[in-house]
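Recap slide: ERF1 domain protein 2 domain protein, sequence and predicted structure.
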Amino acid sequence: MFGRSSKKRELEERIEELKRRIETLESEREALKRELAKERERGRKAKSELQEVEVLLKNAEKRVLTLENELKRLKEKQSEHASFKDVVTLRDTTSLELLSKIGSVRSKRRDLLTIYLGSGERVADLERSGEMPVLGEDLEHLLSRIESDTGIVVFHDVGRIFMNTLVAVPPFPLDTSGWRVDTTFDTDPLERLILKDRTICILLSHAGETFIGVSNRDGFLEDTIVRSSVKEKHTKGGWSQKRFSRLREEDIRNHISKVAETLAEIIERWRDSTEIIIAGGEYNLIRDVLEAYHDLPQLVRGIDARIGKDKGTIDEIRAKVWSLRWYVLG
């Protein structure tokens, strides 16, 4: 009997112990559920806050982009309003006088900047360009608008106290590039380029009339004018437009043939001393002709001169080729 009672108590105690354990586990489970619910609530709030932050961030990024575009537009508009104060073409002698005056400018501070840029070069391409005084967006924009196959020379007063910025487009390709900031402007390379004793071949071509000459700085060594009969325009009646165009093209081909023959004779006599061929006028007429002289440097220039037999007209052609174009920048 006593053995059975002992076993019963042990079982009852075991059951009570298990019940207490169950209660403890259930209590822990409820606590964990409450903690999990809190974490979920915090996570939901955090997710909501994160979404709000992301929306605010996207709106801020859009605003920044809008402001950047507006700033860019305003800068471009400002650059568009920036313009050259003046543009003049000066003969070589007058340009040398101007360079003499530029070279005479003195400053107590090293704030006179001279820049030599070859054809196709940018300021950023120059050695140690990062050390160069800042030109400003307007000035850089204006410099980028200057078209030149010979390069440009810039004379810039960094302090902007005394003079406007002057830019020269030389008549022949620059043989140097670089920059210098000093108490004076560096005019020597440009002066040497102008004064150099060089022999050049000049072609000023128009349909039916082409000037060919070999010149140095002092005057022409040889010159001639090739003339041909080329129909000028189609009038009402008579030939059809198609036939007229065909006949005109034939006239032009005959003229180009005569130009090629004459040029070949002149180049033959002066090839050894000719430094460069400069072509102006209707360049498309003589493009094919010049391909035969690919071994000689060639330069296409706008030569605003008429063709004539008198000495004054012929000298005007040479003077225009040796002239420099000057830009005055505010």
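The helical segments are 2-81, 92-104, 137-145, 188-195, 241-270, 283-290, 311-321.
The chain has a mean pLDDT of 84.
(End of recap.)
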